[in-house]
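Hi R.,

As promised on Friday, here is the backbone we talked about, encoded as structure tokens. Could you run it through your design pipeline when you get a chance and send me back a sequence?
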């Protein structure tokens, strides 16, 4: 499969800036080594000149201190340190710092994620919308981190060398944005490892990424910036896809082949719909920008967290949502109900279905094509624990697919 244009550009920029950062660091290290060697030679030559030059010798001894390791250096033209770097005079560092990796392991992971996830998302969203998503994610994430450390400096006083902010350089915000985008598209799929013995649901992949970076930050302080950028990238990406991304209501766009949207526009037989009530969620060329983002229940904030944490997050997020609605920041009619409410089911019964939802999310088979017989617990053990679970899951999948087909027919009409 051919790599899309924007994905290729991101990979080239990532490799180029990482290599340039590596070369400049070691060039600076080499210059410091040469300078330190010359000063040590001058110090040795001046030892026989008597006590009259003792003060100058002491100054030279201080200047010939321990040379920092190349890993401890940073390139001010490519990266920045909040509260210390002149970001206002070098605004490009807000972009370049997100395309630099510090070590080979992080670079390898970033290349894999960008190569596979970016290629998928760019094919669905298009190059223009995908590039806009990446740029917004990078700039807003770095500006947020910069403002956070500056506010922290104002509140707690001037930061010293002991608690100096870390150097901002990592593509974690991009990687987290791609993971959020994949979660939006195929939340019910699984990542299968070790011949099916380990299964990770994509729905919880962002949460697991944050936990993983948090554990790394406990092991070493140099990974703390990954933890910070993963949280900021998660919030920025979800906010953009939830409220601001063009192409309103993408929840059901996977019901129909997205390749239809790539057909020749001259041969398009579908007339654009300008009425908001007739807006659909497919990738047909429909001109409707009144509602932006994915307002479906499947992309709600609490769906990123496993049970029982999701119940707490849902309670808090609902309070915030009602506050935003009360002050008319949000329109409740812009948000779509869950798929279970499409056929006229009572919304009040949703609170009594948390247990079934939990079991379906964690232990049930995926309802999407190609993920059958996939569960967190191996199927043989699950069938042994609950007899008759196979028929129940089969009926649940059949009911879900019937609802999806009805939705697709409504979109076609």
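Update: got your reply. Pasting your designed sequence below so it's all in one thread:
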């Amino acid at each position: 499969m051919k790599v899309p244009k924007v994905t290729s550009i991101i990979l080239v920029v990532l490799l180029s800036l990482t290599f340039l950062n590596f070369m400049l660091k070691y060039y600076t290290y080499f210059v410091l080594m040469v300078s330190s060697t010359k000063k040590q030679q001058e110090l040795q030559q001046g030892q026989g000149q008597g006590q009259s030059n003792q003060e100058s010798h002491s100054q030279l001894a201080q200047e010939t201190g321990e040379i920092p390791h190349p890993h401890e250096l940073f390139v001010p033209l490519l990266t920045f340190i909040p509260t210390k770097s002149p970001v206002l005079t070098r605004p490009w560092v807000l972009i370049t710092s997100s395309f630099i990796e510090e070590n080979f392991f992080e670079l390898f992971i970033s290349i894999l994620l960008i190569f596979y996830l970016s290629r998928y998302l760019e094919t669905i969203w298009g190059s223009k919308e995908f590039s806009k998503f990446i740029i917004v994610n990078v700039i807003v994430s770095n500006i947020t981190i910069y403002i956070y450390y500056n506010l922290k400096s104002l509140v707690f006083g001037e930061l010293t060398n002991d608690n100096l902010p870390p150097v901002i350089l990592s593509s974690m915000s991009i990687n987290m944005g791609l993971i959020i985008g994949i979660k939006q598209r195929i939340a019910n799929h699984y990542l299968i490892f070790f011949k099916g013995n380990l299964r990770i649901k994509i729905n919880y992949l962002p949460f697991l990424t944050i936990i993983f970076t948090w554990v790394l930050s406990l092991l070493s302080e140099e990974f703390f910036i990954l933890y910070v950028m993963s949280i900021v990238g998660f919030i920025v990406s979800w906010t953009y896809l939830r409220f601001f991304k063009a192409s309103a209501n993408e929840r059901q766009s996977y019901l129909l082949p997205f390749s239809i949207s790539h057909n020749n526009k001259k041969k398009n037989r579908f007339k654009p719909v300008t009425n908001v009530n007739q807006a659909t969620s497919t990738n047909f060329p429909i001109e409707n920008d009144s509602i932006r983002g994915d307002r479906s229940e499947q992309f709600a904030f609490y769906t990123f967290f496993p049970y029982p944490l999701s119940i707490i997050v849902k309670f808090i997020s609902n309070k915030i949502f009602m506050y935003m609605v009360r002050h008319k920041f949000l329109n409740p009619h812009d948000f779509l109900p869950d798929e279970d409410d499409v056929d006229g089911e009572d919304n009040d019964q949703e609170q009594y279905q948390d247990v079934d939802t939990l079991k379906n999310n964690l232990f049930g088979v995926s309802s999407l094509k190609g993920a059958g017989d996939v569960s967190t617990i191996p199927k043989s053990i699950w069938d042994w624990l609950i007899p008759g679970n196979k028929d129940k899951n089969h009926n649940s999948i059949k009911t879900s697919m019937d609802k999806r087909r009805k939705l697709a027919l409504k979109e076609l009409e």
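One thing I noticed while checking it: The chain has a mean pLDDT of 74.

Thanks again,
M.
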